[in-house]
Design brief:
The complex is a heterotrimer of chains A (about 300), B (about 325) and C (about 290). Chain A has 12 helices and 11 strands. Chain A is of the alpha/beta class. In chain A, the strands form 2 sheets. Chain A has a 7-stranded mixed beta sheet with strand order 6-7-8-3-9-10-11, with helices on both faces. Chain A has a 4-stranded antiparallel beta sheet with strand order 2-1-4-5, with helices on one face. Chain A starts with a strand and ends in a 6-residue tail after the last strand. In chain B, helix 4 packs across helix 5, helix 4 packs parallel to helix 6 and helix 5 crosses helix 6. The radius of gyration of chain B is 21 Å and the shape is globular. The longest helix of chain B is centred in the middle third of the chain and has 18 residues. An 8-stranded mixed beta sheet of chain B has the order 6-7-8-3-9-10-12-11, with helices on both faces. Chain C is mainly α. Chain C is built from 12 helices and no strands. In chain C, helix 6 crosses helix 7, helix 8 runs antiparallel to helix 10 and helix 11 runs antiparallel to helix 12. Chain C is elongated and about 75 Å long. In chain C, about 40% of the residues are buried. The chains are: A alpha/beta (about 300), B alpha/beta (about 325), C mainly alpha (about 290). The interface between A and C is medium-sized, with 15 and 10 residues.
Chain lengths: ~300, ~325, ~290
């Protein structure tokens, strides 16, 4: 593919004796929105942090190639610093914690603009006001002087989006950007992120736990379980024609309004101490076979890919 | 459960125009001592019958947590009457253990509601001893039975909450709530913040328990899917007032209040385009808009909405709405 | 973030390896501290001489084969006096802290649980104790009580009541607003039982950690009192007293002050390391940071 922006090959992350990510492979095209879905411990956020190379002392292997930049995992920190904020940006679930409580919103936004765009102070301020307007903040000049705690959670997240998009990055990583917000505000923020990334032609990786929201917001879906990609592909294909038993199970747990019979799966994700050798879903899989315990199934297929020895 | 309760036709809870005003520092001043009244609950009317299951739905700032504290007798209403089987809740609570035994609570922060220095067994045994549910010799057996009932392994009794996962801790909290053999279970966001599979496990458990034990359930949630799965009745709250109430199916299938309709549209649905969200945010309860409190964000607002404040009024059987111009069914 | 639903991979408290292997300095310090305790308990069997036996034929002898730490101006064996001195140091340290901790627990609990005037009065009491350094306060109590080992224990104990009470009150304020306390109230658990079963255990553990840290402070204060000549009376083998006695001879018989001083310093360092280790191991706020 010529328009591939980000190409992750066999990304493996170990922390201590635990393998948090196991040979994760996925790619993101320019301007595409991709959802990483799965339950806690699936490694969704770890992928996002690994792309930003903010994992701290964890050991990584594999490749994370960004178009026109090379492998992010082996690049010198100096070059990586230049990419963060300019070509790669990230927003978090808790915008209140991501903003510095000691400085006004304006100061943080203006400094991000100056750092990433190299503008002088007056130009940066004008740009900051323009960004605030773009993310739907009324009366931006007054809001620039506000401290983060004076804004509601939704407003804080809008400011984060403005900071993240200040330099027109190629890729926005949104780690559960709406799970701390009320549902009506959640819809506002998701629409805002989609509209703003689309307007800039930026790609977006959403880390989500809500499958229905993922289907609404994203072109493609990557389903993760215990650090492995179990299925990936176009959203509709993955959700309506799921081949991996875990994807089906996950979808059956989504409570849409009016659902009256719910098939709750048994058990929980195994801890890293007793993770099965082969397919990590083997302990809970309704279609498990002998082979699943021995050997991890490879992620196979064109477009719609899945890792299962006994697919549906 | 005592048999006479089944024939009891008095409502378990009844709220008559309950107001709750908190005195807070006037906003904008840094050192002053002037206070102003924050109206967390504003004319709430609610009736919960024996055996009913009611979902209280609202966003942050809607007053559902305050309503919960009033129902549990932790806060006294500033005005109006909050009744438990026709008697004031605070009075019944002060009288003795009867109310505490009959009305059990499951907190959203289940881990925080369990003493970290007590084992799961000791935690569940505490209400058993307090209300002398079983003789001392039968306590271990009853604890084991309760843990099994909520789907925990028997060896969980010897463990501390810190060694349990988020889903397991919620199960412990439910087991403890059921220990006193209550007829009413009040739960505050008991399944939020969990993975969907764990949430599904807990919801099926709660639904089974409610059916098996004939529990009256008051379930606070922000998730309409959870409300529709678990509860037969629903009450939608906005800014300290119940704006719509009725049978869950009827209300969610044909919302009468524009806010209910907006909530329903905002809930994620597979492959539907993301609906046009409500504009703006919930206004501060210190600075309520004139007339209807929803008028500032309402897509169907009309001129008189800014002038008159609608009260919860009965529409058809079992349904009520606080809106001057309800959506057509 | 959604709450994790995997059971924690390892037990909440202990790491994969033994505490003693993970913290070598802690282990070493613990061994030293235990050594002191054993020496104190078995002093009559360990000490080569009677600590108060004077030998005018062997005055101010430097450390040597007969007297490992030398002798003092009365010809008393310094090693024996140091070993017996450990008895007094540890007894005073332990009982003084016990008094301070018990008193602090009572006052702190009362202040944290009551409100209004009672709380105000107790807080002013704590403040007034905290306003003076513990040594000055102990001097004041000695002036009232008189000299002697028992008086020193009480004086030092009372002077430490302030810090303990303040720490306990802070913990009580934090614990009593926890959800599990409200939950107990909802179950109609009587107030006294709530305090006993739910608040006290969550206050006692941090207090126990405080105790290990403050024993060294108590020993230091008691030695300071003896050094000033207002603590225990001669010829009791007390380190502070010994340091004071050797002061006049420090230019030509430095060992007289140095040996008890070294014994005191080593014990205090060992106790601090042990206290810190226990705190880091059991304080949930520090746990998981490393």
């Amino acid at each position: 593919m010529t328009d591939t922006l980000l190409d992750i090959r066999d990304l493996t992350v170990d922390r201590g004796s635990a393998r948090i990510l196991d040979r994760v492979t996925l790619d993101v095209a320019r301007g595409e929105t991709v959802a990483l879905v799965g339950e806690s411990g699936a490694g969704k956020s770890t992928i996002a942090t690994a792309i930003m190379r903010l994992l701290g002392d964890a050991r990584t292997s594999g490749e994370v190639r960004l178009a026109d930049a090379g492998d992010l995992l082996t690049m010198p920190e100096r070059d990586m610093v230049r990419l963060r904020g300019r070509r790669l940006s990230m927003i978090f679930q808790d915008a209140g914690a991501a903003l510095n409580p000691a400085y006004t919103v304006g100061r943080q936004l203006v400094s991000a603009v100056r750092r990433n765009l190299g503008l002088g102070k007056p130009e940066a301020r004008a740009r900051a006001i323009e960004l605030m307007t773009q993310v739907g903040i009324n009366d931006p000049e007054a809001r620039l002087t506000a401290y983060p705690h004076q804004l509601s959670g939704g407003m804080q997240q809008r400011v984060m989006v403005a900071i993240a998009l200040a330099a027109n990055p190629d890729l926005l990583l949104a780690d559960e950007p709406t799970s701390a917000l009320d549902v009506t505000i959640q819809a506002q923020i998701v629409r805002l992120i989609l509209a703003q990334t689309r307007a800039r032609g930026a790609a977006c990786i959403f880390v989500l736990h809500d499958l229905a929201l993922a289907s609404q917001a994203c072109d493609r879906i990557v389903v993760l379980y215990a650090g492995q990609v179990v299925e990936s592909g176009p959203a509709r294909e993955v959700l309506e024609n799921a081949r991996h038993p875990y994807t089906r199970q996950l979808k059956s747990c989504v409570l849409e309004i009016g659902v009256q019979d719910l098939h709750a799966p048994e058990g929980t994700v195994p801890s890293h101490d007793d993770m099965p050798e082969g397919c990590r879903f083997a302990t809970r899989c309704p279609r498990v076979q002998d082979r699943c315990w021995m050997q991890a199934p490879p992620l196979e297929g064109e477009g719609h890919r899945f890792a299962c020895w006994n697919p549906e | 459960m005592p048999g006479d309760m089944l024939s009891d036709d008095r409502p378990v809870f009844e709220l008559k125009d309950v107001e709750k005003v908190f005195q807070v520092r006037r906003p904008g001043q840094r050192f002053g001592r002037q206070t102003t009244g924050l109206r967390a609950l504003d004319g709430v009317r609610l009736r919960v019958n024996q055996g009913a299951s009611l979902a209280l739905v609202g966003e942050s700032g809607s007053g559902k947590s305050t309503l919960l504290r009033v129902l549990l007798g932790l806060d006294a209403p500033s005005d109006g009457a909050a009744l438990y089987r026709d008697r004031p809740i605070r009075t019944v609570r002060a009288e003795g253990a009867e109310f505490a035994r009959d009305v059990a609570m499951v907190y959203q922060d289940a881990r925080g509601s369990l003493n970290p220095r007590m084992t799961v067994g000791a935690l569940v045994a505490e209400p058993l001893r307090r209300f002398a549910v079983v003789p001392e010799s039968g306590i271990d057996g009853r604890v084991a039975a309760l843990l099994t009932r909520v789907g925990l392994p028997a060896d969980a009794a010897a463990r501390y909450p810190a060694a349990l996962s988020g889903g397991q801790v919620r199960r412990v909290a439910i087991a403890r709530a059921l220990a006193s053999e209550p007829s009413v279970l009040v739960a505050d966001e008991a399944v939020s913040g969990l993975d969907v599979s764990t949430q599904a496990q807990l919801l099926t458990l709660l639904k089974r328990l409610q059916a098996d034990m004939g529990l009256t359930l008051v379930f606070i949630t922000h998730d309409l899917g959870v409300a529709s799965f678990l509860c037969e009745e629903i009450a939608i709250m906005y800014l300290g007032r119940i704006v719509e109430t009725g049978p869950t199916d009827a209300v969610l299938n044909a919302p009468a209040h524009p806010y209910t309709a907006a909530l329903r549209a905002a809930a994620p649905r597979f492959f539907e385009p993301i609906a046009e969200p409500l504009p703006g945010e919930i206004p501060s309860p210190l600075d309520l808009p004139q007339g209807c409190r929803f008028s500032g964000r309402c897509p169907l607002v009309q001129a008189d909405c800014h002038a008159r404040d609608p009260h919860l009024a009965r529409t058809e059987t079992g349904r009520a709405v606080a809106c001057l111009h309800p959506c057509a069914p | 973030m959604t709450m994790t639903d995997r059971a924690p991979a390892r037990p909440a408290r202990r790491g994969p390896r033994s505490l003693f292997l993970r913290r070598p300095f802690f282990t070493l310090a613990l061994l030293v501290a235990v050594g002191y305790v054993l020496a104190a308990i078995f002093a009559p069997f360990v000490a080569p001489f009677d600590p108060v036996a004077q030998d005018f034929n062997a005055m101010m002898q430097p450390p040597g084969a007969a007297h490992l730490m030398g002798t003092d101006s009365y010809g008393q064996d310094i090693l024996s006096r140091v070993i017996y001195g450990a008895r007094y140091a540890l007894i005073i340290g332990f009982f003084a802290v016990a008094i301070g901790a018990a008193g602090g627990l009572v006052v702190g609990l009362a202040a944290g649980l009551s409100g209004g005037w009672t709380e105000w009065a107790l807080l002013r009491l704590i403040d007034s104790i905290l306003a003076l350094p513990s040594l000055i306060l102990a001097v004041a109590f000695i002036a009232i009580l008189g000299q002697g080992v028992d008086k020193v224990v009480i004086a030092v104990g009372l002077s430490m009541l302030g810090p303990f009470a303040r720490a306990v009150r802070a913990d009580v304020l934090q614990v009593r607003v926890q959800l599990f306390v409200e939950a107990a109230g909802l179950m109609a658990i009587p107030r006294a039982v709530i305090v006993w079963r739910h608040i006290l255990p969550n206050v006692i553990y941090p207090l126990a950690v405080q105790v290990t840290i403050r024993i060294s402070e108590a020993i230091l204060v008691s030695s300071s009192l003896s050094f000033l000549g207002i603590g225990v009376t001669p010829p009791t083998p007390d380190w502070g007293l010994m340091i004071a006695e050797g002061r006049a001879f420090v230019s030509f018989a430095a060992w007289m002050s140095a040996m008890p001083g070294f014994a005191l310093a080593l014990l205090l360092i060992a106790l601090s390391i042990v206290g810190d280790g226990i705190r880091e191991e059991f304080d949930p706020k520090l746990r998981g940071k490393s």
